[in-house]
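Human:
Take a look at this sequence-structure pair and walk me through the tokens.
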Amino acid sequence: MLNRMAVPALVLGLVMLVLAPFFIAAAPYESTMGLVQKIFYLHLPSWIAMFLAIFVCGIASIRFLWTRRESADHVALAAAELALLFGAIGLMTGPMWARKAWGVWWEWDVRLTSALVLWMIFAAYGLLRRFGGPGSERLAAGVAIFGMANVPFVYWSANLWRTMHPKTTVLPTLVPAMMGPMLWCVGAFLVLFIVLLAARVRIAEQESLLDDVMRAREA
């Protein structure tokens, strides 16, 4: 299914990404932060895409542990790598925004710290898959499920504790001139996620076939 969706999603994603800068440029400036606030149009969608990738990885990991189907493991691995990618975008754009908004590049408050820890959980997943040896895919699946369980904590942390980070209620309060570009950028990131997921799953399938051929030749 992912492979069938890849080509139309790629075309749609390219169109959306090309148009996104024009919509962002047309959006009004925020009254206190001015131009730097437009990092928001990249920062928030990147975290939404990361959370989606984590849920896909976690659910695929549960399915893999339950059924031992290799296809589920391929999806989990692809989604974990995308969680790292989109999380890295969020971790890079956040300090750029914070420097102007808070006067510091990084503040060790609960939202920022928990988001960094969540990203590091999936970095650990990747290290397990790369260096863990036989059986590491099952251990990594457990790590992915643990990471998925942390997403609600990271999301709600800004509402539950005193933090410099804006609360989750900011998005619904955006004026229509800002909400439109934001939704467009979120859509562009989600389409990009679908395209990259399909491509990475396909690569994982080909790698698995190659491993089978190599084992057959050695037998």
In short: The mean pLDDT is 86. The helical segments are 2-26, 40-67, 70-101, 110-131, 136-160, 176-218. The chain has six helices and no strands.
